[in-house]
Amino acid sequence: TTMSVAQALAGRVPEGGQVTVRGWVRTRRDSKAGLSFVSVSDGSCFAPIQVVAPDTLPNYESEVKHLTTSCAVICTGTLVKSQGQGQSYEIQASGIEVTGWVEDPLTYPMQPKQHSLEYLREFAHLRPRTNLFGAVTRIRHCLSMAVHRFFHERQFYWISTPIITTSDAEGAGQMFRVSTLDVANLPRDGKGNVDFSRDFFGKETFLTVSGQLNVEAYCLALSKVYTFGPTFRAENSNTTRHLAEFWMIEPEIAFADLNDDANLAEEFLKYLFRAVLDERGDDLAFIAERVDKTAITRLESFINAPFERIDYSDAITLLQQSGKKFDFPVEWGLDLQTEHERWLTEEHVGRPVVVMNYPEQIKAFYMRLNDDGRTVAAMDVLAPGIGEIIGGSQREERLDILDARMGQFGLDPAHYDWYRDFRRYGTVPHAGFGLGFERLVVYVCGLANIRDAIAYPRAPGTAEF
Ligand code: 4AD
Ligand code: MG
């Protein structure tokens, strides 16, 4: 019976006990007693399985004793309870077939030792073979599945929103251009005709910064919806918290206000962390040992703590009275910087914080203007150790105010005419938020740099893969 390492370690012993496991060698150790211990991993779980190879194997001297890290092998033998410490089952091999050798093991970039994360970033194509990236990859998968499960259980529908777009969903001018209107500079064929083959939209198009405006359309018909897809931002992404290409989860709910939105965000995050604790104990234990001692307790306390809700105006007062020296100024009307967010959530409250009702001039045009006329119904969820992880708002459902806000930000209403239609035909209060998926992975895995939370990070200077 061919099975995964995870199944073998779980003791799925078939009738007769004969199994085949396929994977890559982690390490090999030879004993004087004419045995070699080959640990084999196939990525199905954190642990490798130990394959005990006796010197009676026909290729023992010629092959088995030359196995090195990352050689690909197919191992057949008897699955038995292991006498060794810390491992449940092992395979007493009756055959080891080598399907791929590692040429020149001494110069192989992934040596069986702990490499620095900086070094591993230069090998985005080989780093999935390390313990850490195996663990991060499985946790990331667990989180993705939990995202869909959470929404599916609550009757949300998943909407695939476009990646190529003409409208700037955040109105912040941070879009990467796909096709240009600059016809004068387009290539021409031999007859002097403009070659539109690579600019086939015939208008200026960009990569999306957010699926929100598109998903609002579906919210205003299906009530509860979400997007989960890639988004792109041409902002200064040379930080440990920003990527030029990242994944975002954006739920949108109809007949809902900012409090409903904050409730959803809290329930959602707690659900996701619960899923990782329940399903990825093996990977979390490794992360707690190698990356961040608090990995497990941090998630547990996050789940058990009610989020604190603070008005932006009160947050400013708290920051001003903190007596703490910040690099950036703290003043009503200015946006909170990471250092301010971290002080609030880590030092002041010690729990996740939802900051609500920001000054209208520093937030996006689509956010609902509050009755005070100077704040909007916006929220940011701040997590200890990372700062902003979610940004959301109640949307401006009144057409006249939406138009005035667009005017104020210098946006062309003609560009957003389709979006204005929602306010003209059956408008309702509605709200939503965006969770940066890699920020979530960073938080769960205790990573210091967001470039280690995605397989192929896109940030200045990293696009060679
Ligand atoms: O706060 P943001 O810009 O909000 C929106 O895009 C709204 N349209 C969301 C909504 O209401 N539907 O981004 C949301 C989240 C941030 O809180 C952050 O976690 C993440 O997206 N994010 C980034 N993650 C990685 N790299 C970047 N450059 C990011 N920019 C935002
Ligand atoms: Mg934000």
Automatic annotation (TrEMBL):
This is Asparagine--tRNA ligase. HAMAP family: Asn_tRNA_synth. Pfam families: tRNA-synt_2 (PF00152), tRNA_anti-codon (PF01336). It is found in: Cytoplasm. The keyword Aminoacyl-tRNA synthetase applies. The keyword RNA-binding does not apply. Belongs to the class-II aminoacyl-tRNA synthetase family. Its EC number is 6.1.1.22. InterPro entries: Aa-tRNA-synt_II, aa-tRNA-synth_II, aa-tRNA-synth_II/BPL/LPL, Asn-tRNA-ligase, Asp/Asn-tRNA-synth_IIb, NA-bd_OB-fold, NA-bd_OB_tRNA. It is an enzyme of class 6 (ligase). GO terms for biological process: asparaginyl-tRNA aminoacylation. Keywords: Aminoacyl-tRNA synthetase, ATP-binding, Cytoplasm, Ligase, Nucleotide-binding, Protein biosynthesis. Homodimer. Its main location: cytoplasm. Residues 138-457 form the Aminoacyl-transfer RNA synthetases class-II family profile domain. One of its GO terms (molecular function) is asparagine-tRNA ligase activity. It catalyses: tRNA(Asn) + L-asparagine + ATP = L-asparaginyl-tRNA(Asn) + AMP + diphosphate + H(+). GO terms for cellular component: cytoplasm. It comes from Thermomonas carbonis.
